[in-house]
Design brief:
The chain is 30% helix and 30% strand. The chain is α/β, with parallel strands linked by helices. A 10-stranded mixed sheet has the order 3-4-5-2-6-1-7-8-9-10, sandwiched between helices. Strands 11-15-12-13-14 form a 5-stranded antiparallel sheet, with helices on both faces.
């Protein structure tokens, strides 16, 4: 039985998350969506709620999708969806606009029961191009949303001039140099490849990190958010890297937002694919190293005010 892919949609209040949900429903008619909304806003994803499935929290929409409100623990909501006997093949989660989505992502990375049924597809973050200035509190929240995203949609581009848009895109890229950035109007990007990106799939992570090397390996500081790429041909000691990563994430849980990588572990024939969101770590076995290829570890770290020299020094000490 194949797992259900999960796409998490984030972005600050008013960025266009609900409009994107409607757009995805329109352009993917072959999919049977289940939709979890972290909060029900003024604009419902569909004004015609035609059937109450099992309880007051789960509704069937006129287009065959189902929707429920995240008014309790995510695990319980997911269990209700599974137990509802309603057929669906893709889960969309719209997070609240004023929170870091990291806790939701962590459940799909670390919870073995959740991982049995679901797998993360990608994280989409919408950024409102029409908002030229933000207060410090909002800026910090939005930075976190941007930092964990795999796809960044700059929305409402019709409301700004080219100079503002270019400056905004440059600012966003400095906060997350490893995500694709697309412009859109009314939450409708020109690209049709919004879902089924499988950014958390081991083989796709490997290809993605290879592509990163063609760009800058680290970014200029932008409101404290930085990203870096560490590479090394020295085999890593499995015990040392595990202990260091756990301590590193626990100690820096408020400032390290995302880690992904391909690890060359001593005496292990396969590459190990690393993913983490905040303190939650997922390591899976990737494809085998070939005799003729260079066994090289590549680790991407995105966070706030990274002490890159110290991180590189620590990682250099983790070899066998």
């Amino acid at each position: 039985m194949s797992k259900i892919p999960v796409t998490v949609i984030t972005g600050f209040l008013g960025a266009g998350k609900t409009s994107l949900l409607n757009h995805l429903i329109d352009i993917y008619p072959e999919k049977k969506f289940a939709i979890i909304e972290n909060e029900f806003g003024e604009e419902n994803i569909d004004s015609q709620l035609v059937e109450n499935i099992q309880n007051e929290d789960i509704f069937e929409l006129s287009n065959g999708c189902i929707c429920c409100n995240l008014n309790q623990e995510l695990f319980l909501v997911l269990q209700k969806l599974i137990d509802s006997n309603h057929s669906f093949n893709h889960l969309l989660i719209e997070t609240t606009g004023i929170a870091d989505p990291g806790s939701i992502l962590a459940s799909f990375i670390s919870d073995p029961i959740v991982k049995k049924e679901f797998e993360l597809d990608s994280v989409i973050c919408l950024v409102d191009a029409s908002v030229s200035k933000v207060d410090p509190e909002k800026d910090d929240i939005l930075n976190k949303q941007i930092a964990v995203a795999d796809l960044l949609l700059v929305n409402k581009t019709d409301l700004v001039d080219k100079k503002h848009l270019l400056e905004l895109r440059n600012s966003i890229q400095m906060k997350n140099n490893f995500a694709q950035i697309l412009n859109c109007v009314h939450s409708k990007p020109e690209s049709k490849k919004i879902l089924d990106r499988y950014a958390y799939n081991p083989s796709n992570i490997f290809q993605h990190i290879l592509g990163i090397e063609k760009r800058e390996s680290s970014t200029t500081n932008s409101h404290g958010i930085q990203s870096m790429l560490y590479t090394s041909v020295k085999p890593l000691n499995q015990f040392k890297i595990g202990m260091w990563l756990d301590a590193f994430l626990q100690f820096n849980q408020d400032t390290i937002y995302r880690v992904k990588g391909i690890l060359n572990i001593s005496d292990v024939d396969n590459r190990i694919v690393l993913q983490s969101v905040h303190t939650q770590i997922q390591a899976t076995v990737g494809k085998a190293w070939q005799k003729e290829e260079i066994r090289e570890s590549k680790i991407v770290i995105i966070g706030k005010d990274l002490n890159q020299d110290a991180i590189r020094k620590n990682l250099e000490e983790l070899s066998k």
